[in-house]
Amino acid sequence: MRILLSVTLGILTAIGGFLDIGDLVAAAVIGSRFGMSLAWVLVVGVTGMVLFSEMAARVTAISGRAVFDLVRERLGARAGLANLLASYIITLLTMSAQIGGIALALELASSIHYLLWVPVAVFLVWVVIWRMPFGWMEKTYGLLGLALVVFGVALWRLGPDWGELMSSATRFSPPPDEEWSVWSYYAIALFGATMTPYSVLFFSSSGVEEKWTPRDLVTARVNAFVGFPLGGLLALAIMGCAATWLMPADIEVEDLGQVALPVVAALGKLGLVVVIVGFFAATFGAGLESALAAGYSVAQYFGWPWGKTVVSPAGAPYFHVVILLSLMAGTLFILTGIDPIKVVEYSIVLSAVALPLTYLPIFVVANDRGYMGDRVNSRFTNIVGSFYLVLLLMVSIVAIPLMLYTKAGQ
Amino acid sequence: MPKDPARGSVFRIGFAVLDRQIVADDGEHVGKTDDVEFSWNEGEAPAMTALLTDTAALGPRITGRLGRMWRAVLARLRPFDHDEPVRIPIGDVEAFSPTTRLSTPAPEGSRAAEKWLGDNVVGRIPGARR
Questions:
Q1: A129, A134, A302: best to mutate for the B interface, most B CBs within 10 A
Q2: Which of A22, A50, A176, A287 is deepest in the core (most CB within 10 A)?
Q3: Is the pLDDT of residue A256 over 60?
């Protein structure tokens, strides 16, 4: 009974915690512009995320090591450092995007300008990292994030032409008035939003903090195999809402309020309240995860003591200083008044560029008997894993030229 | 070449020693093996005699101008009475992989700057010593 409860709780947390500001914005922007024609990317992205997280969870549970610990060990001092710098900068950018997202959600709730909320949002993130125990933190934002199920309800209430949505989803080509290059650029953005490196960094490090053993692997796997696809369904619902309501109204999504419009149209004020709770939980959770991921990666590379709960902050000073400085840098970046939605869009494309950096070492170690014993990848996992490695490399190479060519999707 | 007694295979220092996490006997993180020290007498083969751990010791391994800068800047963070990288004699090592475990507590002078920061800055924020 207790196991059942903890598994259910884990799944719910995984669903609620799956989405972040990148998913929210990408799904709505794409839905309003391309209908459901990029829904397949969500399927590819979620599958990749399940594969990547399962490998990372297995590596952590068997070897007790987190991602950047292994990056340094496998890639050596120099290549490891280059990897760290690139990953850190992307994580910082993603974290800034989440901070902007928290502030935008608070603006929606209060009508007070988001820039005034930024310091408050960052302070809250920091306090939670500083004080709140791990399990509590994960469960709170995960369960609150379930509020986003309201998008599913809204889609059903909007009563779309399901056949039309379905045929749009299986067309695999852009709508007639859009170009292939722009469509592909947004495909990469959506992929980057779904398969995020910072959440794997966080996932594996939290596994070390919670002292996973091979026995915990079952729970971690169920969370990944069941929770993530269900979380992906929420993104699909957001896209569906945008395709059903925003696209015919010719609304191009430029701020977070527009993402919520279909829900308001279908469910009124109450819907709006629930959506704002969901937005806040999703961005706040991702803000915590990305800030911690920044600290984890640097501390693991240098071999410093790290951890949110296993050591007191005074016992891991460098780790906490890195988090604090990262949060400050993110705050200053957003306070420049740069459009937070633009930050989100660039952060998801660039994280697609950086994906191979963390994927490859995990993939290699997951095949190393020295670390894994007989728990190495199965042949099936390796076939799928190799396919994704090629895909990730291709995406990574194509992303920036495509960004320049399409002027970032304009 | 030293042999790994468990496997009877060649012991590759680049693989099994360098860049691994060093953990003291009480589980405290000491650092990564940033470099190793070799000693030899005339006519004998060189042997690994110590592990060096210190972020500044990474400098020479990064090479080039960046490496030199790295070493110069980070060496400044050492305390005055320990102006060399922290040296861990090879005899103190209990096991090399997967993590390098020591049979002793963390050597004196390791993590000096970090401990200072912990005592004087981070430790002063309310709730730091729960």
A1: A302
A2: A287
A3: yes
